[in-house]
């Protein structure tokens, strides 16, 4: 698939249901656990809480949400790619946008069980700076940092 088909656009609530469905499926596949939050609470989080601190961009192909990233100038909060569209460069495109908007340094967390995400972030210049952060899933996680060189 050509990356020319991918449209990166700021998040709009008209994409809320598609975005949350994609996010839930991607996360469940990545960590092997069902989502603990209700669909409705994630819609609320996406529409009303996340945008207060983060820019949210979507990757769209043929009107279908295939990826999302939430970031600010120092942190990536969320990055999810549709399970049928992984390993096609979409995550890289979204991550590059966050890097361009950063102050030259980004941090993020990923679950220790999510080895695909670890390989992805390390491939894109992130280094481990911490482990074991407690989170609502009670899973060990890894903190990463990227510094512009």
From TrEMBL:
Keywords: Ribonucleoprotein, Ribosomal protein. This is Ribosomal protein S18 acetylase RimI-like enzyme. Pfam families: Acetyltransf_1 (PF00583). Residues 6-149 form the N-acetyltransferase domain. It comes from Oceanobacillus polygoni. One of its GO terms (molecular function) is acyltransferase activity, transferring groups other than amino-acyl groups. GO terms for cellular component: ribosome. Transmembrane segments: none annotated. It comes from the Bacteria. InterPro entries: Acyl_CoA_acyltransferase, GNAT_dom, MshD_Acetyltransferase.
